[in-house]
Amino acid sequence: MEMTIRVGLRRGMSAVLLAMAGMLVAPMVLAGGQRVAVTDPAGDAGFDGGSAPLYQDIVKAGISLKDGRFTFTMEVAAPVPRHPALTAPGSNHIWWSWLIDTDLATEPEGCPSSSGVPHRTEFNVVISWDGTAFTGFLNDRRPLLTGGDVAVTPLSFSIKGATLMASARASLLGSPSSFVWTGATIDWNSPGCSESLFILDFAPPPPFGTWPA
Ligand SMILES: [Ca+2]
Ligand SMILES: [Ca+2]
Predict the structure, then answer these.
(1) Which conformational region is residue 200 in: left (phi greater than 0), alpha (psi within -120 to 50 degrees), or beta?
(2) Backbone torsions φ then ψ of 13, nearest 5 degrees
(3) What is this structure's pTM?
(4) Listed residue (50, 40, 39, 43) closest to 8, CA to CA
(5) Centroid of ligand 2 to alpha carbon of 160 (angstroms)
(6) 16, containing H or E segment
(7) What is the maximum alpha-carbon separation in the chain?
(8) Judging by beta carbons within 10 Å of its beta carbon (0-12, 13-18, 19+), is residue 186 exposed, middle or buried?
(9) Mean pLDDT, to the nearest integer, of 188-193?
(10) pLDDT over 90, % of the chain
(11) 116 CA to middle of ligand 1, Å?
């Protein structure tokens, strides 16, 4: 079955991410070193001219590292409901995520994209809602480079009002000293590992952010 990547502004996720390869321009930085954080406008989230719910509209995103553990934070424009509606194009599940590219030279092919489709990120830190429950997990996409499957590790996470947080031991991400990152809210109209995703908001937007700043 042919699936099509559809992303806000009609730009494919892979195309957008690939276009940014090697562009290491620092975003707005509130603090350097062990913390990066960016702000993002409210009212800019949506797909194809349609507006996303405010709880999918990123207004702040950041990453910090302390005691060997990364903490990923995101603030959205309205509190996340206990039971968010799954409406098109997010009719299957929705993500609040942090997309991490730890190796600019590699683009693993496959999940969460379709098989054979390259995607520059090595890691996806995700808080997902599937209509029944919220889950937090890390996609380690590095095994895809050698014919393996994406490795999924449950993560501790929290949602308090409009603030979402997930954390992971740095070693789970290969203890990277530098990487390119962005926060992203994403709608899916099919289960993962397909191209049926719709990116609603980036923070920082392309060309994304760097760690460290
Ligand atoms: Ca926004
Ligand atoms: Ca990469």
Answers:
(1) alpha
(2) -60, -50
(3) 0.86
(4) 50
(5) 31
(6) helix 13-19
(7) 46
(8) buried
(9) 89
(10) 76
(11) 31
